[in-house]
């Protein structure tokens, strides 16, 4: 992740030295209609190659994943008293 941020920083510095910004960093109000349409077309070209699958299959996979983790989920199963650091009489706070 740091390498990506470093790379982006270097790229941004390069654009900054040339007194220009990459098209994606410019505001839409500062762009011509042709530049906006080109940006939209580039994005659509990227998205067309994105693998797709049916929502019903994704939902079934998600349900199976969640149900597989259910036996160990402390929100569903609960936390044993001996492992719960918040259990017991430790005083507390009284608001008056």
From TrEMBL:
Membrane topology per record: Lipid-anchor
GO biological process: G protein-coupled receptor signaling pathway
UniProt domain G protein gamma: residue ranges: 27-96
Function: Guanine nucleotide-binding proteins (G proteins) are involved as a modulator or transducer in various transmembrane signaling systems. The beta and gamma chains are required for the GTPase activity, for replacement of GDP by GTP, and for G protein-effector interaction.
Protein name: Guanine nucleotide-binding protein subunit gamma
Organism for this UniProt entry: Oryzias latipes (Japanese rice fish)
GO MF entry, a single one: G-protein beta-subunit binding
Pfam families: G-gamma (PF00631)
SUPFAM superfamilies (alphabetical): Transducin (heterotrimeric G protein), gamma chain
Cell compartment(s), UniProt: Cell membrane
Assembly with partners or alone: G proteins are composed of 3 units; alpha, beta and gamma.
Transmembrane annotation, as ranges: none
Stretch list, region Disordered: 76-96
Sequence ranges of Basic and acidic residues compositional bias: 79-90
Keywords in alphabetical order: Cell membrane, Lipoprotein, Membrane, Transducer
Cited InterPro entries: G-protein_gamma (IPR001770), G-protein_gamma-like_dom (IPR015898), GGL_sf (IPR036284)
UniProt family annotation: Belongs to the G protein gamma family.
Domain of life: Eukaryota
GO cellular component, one term: heterotrimeric G-protein complex
